[in-house]
Amino acid sequence: MEPAAFTEEQGVPSMVENAEVEIEEVLRLLEVLRAKNSELMEAVGPHRPKGDVERRGMAFMEMELSVIVGFLMTLSSQNIDGDMRSWLQQLYGLSSRIINGILEAGRRRHRLRLRVAQSFVCSSDSDWLSDVMLKFYRLSEHPCRYTHLLASSDPGLPAQAPMVGGLPLVGIDGPIKKLLKWLVPWEETDSSLRVLAVIGPVGIGKTTLAMELHNRIRLQAGGGHHPFQCSIIAQMSRRTNRNELLLQDILSQISDPAGPAPSSYQSQPKIIDLLVHQVSERLQDKRYLIIIDDIWEASDWETIKGAFPDNNHNSRILITTRVQSIEWSCCSGFQMKPLNQMDSETLLLAKTFGSVDDGYLTDDEKLFCENILLRCEGIPLFIIGMADWLKEQFQQQQHLRQFQGQEEVEEQNKFAFAIHSEEGDVPRLPKHFEQALSTIFDDLPSKVRPLLMCMSMFPYGYKFEKGRLFRKWLSEGFADWEEAEYYFSQLVHGNVITACVADNSTRSPDGTEDCQWHVNHFMQQFLTSKSADMGFVFTSTTLNLAAASATCHDKETRTMPRKLALHHPDPSIPSLLETVDLSETRSLSLSGAVSRIPLDKFVNLVVLDLEGWENLQDEDILLVCRSKLFFLEYLSIRNTRVRKLPREIKELRLVATLDVSYTQIKTAVMVPHDIRCLHNMHTLATIDLSEYPASFIYALGDLEYLLVLAITWCFHQCTDGSYSEALLSSIPKWKCLKSLTIHCGLGCYMEFLESLSDISPHLERFKVTIGRFAGLPKWIHGLRFLSFLQITICELGIDDLRILRDLPKLQCLILGAMPKLIYLQLNFCACPTRHIRVPLGITNLRRLRAVTLCYNLRYTNSPSIKMTVDSVIKEVAEHGNQIDLFINDIKHDHVQAVDEETDNATGTPCGTNAGAGYEAQIVADGATGVIEVEITEAES
Length: 940
Prior knowledge:
InterPro entries: AAA+_ATPase, Disease_R_plants, LRR_dom_sf, LRR_R13L4/SHOC2-like, NB-ARC, P-loop_NTPase. Keywords: Coiled coil, Repeat. The protein is α/β, with parallel strands linked by helices. The protein contains 29 helices and 26 strands. It has a twelve-stranded parallel sheet. Strands 24-23-22-21-25-26 form a six-stranded mixed sheet, with helices on one face. α2 runs parallel beside α5 (128-141) and α8 packs parallel to α9 (271-283). The protein is globular, with a radius of gyration of 33 Å. The termini are far apart.
């Protein structure tokens, strides 16, 4: 199968399935393809119809081929693993199909575009070239996953030693007391082996906690008596044979070896099995404590756990790990929490100044320390590392005070303690920072590393939802949806990506967004530096550094990075962009106050993320659409001031993700034909349908590849049958749909959706905000992959509960959520006490400020009235906010100050378990003004 030997008549031989292809074969084939591509560029002139499109596409292919060839020339056959070989096969197959398509077109003298289009079976003749080019873009992005093969690394790098020396052990007493009870429960009847995993990110203090536990057990023993007959501390290595090394270390620490010597075995099993057997025999009759520090793969524990027998001697195993999934194997887990504000400050001051007194610090210096602690997020490793850096800063200040005037010192202070930069204020991370974070990065599978490096495209402190991150990964070609789920879970379980603490200030306008995630500031700073070193992503800071380096080396021409993220205003960036070839950039991300960015010159973008860009105007979107970005697949203008989408948006025919969420787009500009032109769309969020005709909704049904859709639905569309029929017609056509979100207006009744006859069986998320259903739609029972359901229903029946119970993947269920409710009025009447309908859940209305109860005074002594009032008073008393409670227009000021035993306004003790039927009226804070809606008892 020698590509160099093919003839014009025969073409390139097809590759046998699963056949191995060598690097040299692929390189020879690519050289042929590059030659053919050059011939086509000369043959296709701009005077021909769509000639510019063809020439642009071929120039795009030339650039992508150069990237691939450059990477292949750095490899050798020894560097190829299984995943790399699969990539080579894909590359060979795509290249051979293109060459054969070109030859076939030449033989039959047909139009080249049509013939090659047929060879790729593209859906649109006009888009075949863009489709082929994007295939090469995907393949050219792939090599960054294998950069680790070219870098030298020490697989035996020792794990970082705990940094305790002389520092106060702050925030550790509580966990120590809990774990000591778990470790030494001699009075309990259960004497079986217990295994506990201490879980947390690198640097949070897992090792310090484990060592302190071991020390305190020794101190408590007293008189030489130790509660364990065998006490061992072992640390997991980074070497490939780490399990063998660990077991050998444990074996060497066990005294009085028991059982037969290794030489007595009749057969020699695998070394790991032999070691497991030897350790198990020597521990069989002992009460042992074994601390294993830093297990970093769940499979490691599965391999070695057979070495630790359950001998009913109250033995204990304590594991430290940053991998969440190990807890599931161990059955028990202790989650390490970051230090609180007080402990963090104590550690920082003690390490920096040797004292916890900050009285001698200036206000600027105190503010500086507070901001440092904010970025450290309570992680001791970061606090200690920043303390070292901070000590250097203060020493420099002291030096200045000795040799310079006060004005110079104050000016230096402004520079040294200013922390307004979005891209980090520490010129470089301390060495042990680099080592710890590099260990995390290097431990990740090769496929996951570029996904993590994508985080350097985000602004510092950026909080993101999982779905939005997935869509960027898809557009970059790093993973499909299923792979994204798996890789994301690896990053979460490894504590690389962490969930954000709830913060109302960052919630989306409807208050019902998914859980938000983020990457620690220092991890992102590390990723930014790492990405720049690898040429993967450049930010404002790293781009300037790269430009300065190129100038120092007298490089006459500069090439633009393939991925560029500009979030920090820098006056030098616009002029720098004038000196580089912007056609080589494939991904551009802009936000904040960045200005003077020539969007029309980034002609070969695949990803354009303008989320949160303060300077984005309607004219910029029009410019993007008119710039003929033939290869653009991802366009986000989320959270910007854009007011309308131009009709020219249809020119971006390959756009698969269009995110217009939280913009000012209200006017209907697109027509059904426009949306049908975007036939490759797989994500559309969030499109306001309030002023679009029903025909537009029918046209949405033609977007057959949709994976994610978010729409806004208003009241008049619920009452107009043509709109309801259009939506009912379109939903069954989205056979691949995974996420459907409908943001409804006030008063929207969505019962018409209960008549759906068909919906994508792949649906994972179904979310309807504000709009209500009479009951749970029956078709939900067939959604076997549904993991997230948010829906408001008037009555939840037994059959509905059975449907919810039988959803195998359901993880999050929200029924009748009203996160923005501030005023609740309940109008109710007496009913027989056998109908227990007590209003519950008031404590879940986090923004509630006032509650009003209204009932006829004739029924004051009715048991149902009393019991309902009792229930409401109890919930108001337990609410975290200060609630104004009115009962029949009488304000009760001291409800939240009394305990549960205080009689209520009706004279009945709180907590009685009966209720009343009632009607309810709500006044909630909407997007603008005050809104009145009706609410059922199920929602309250």
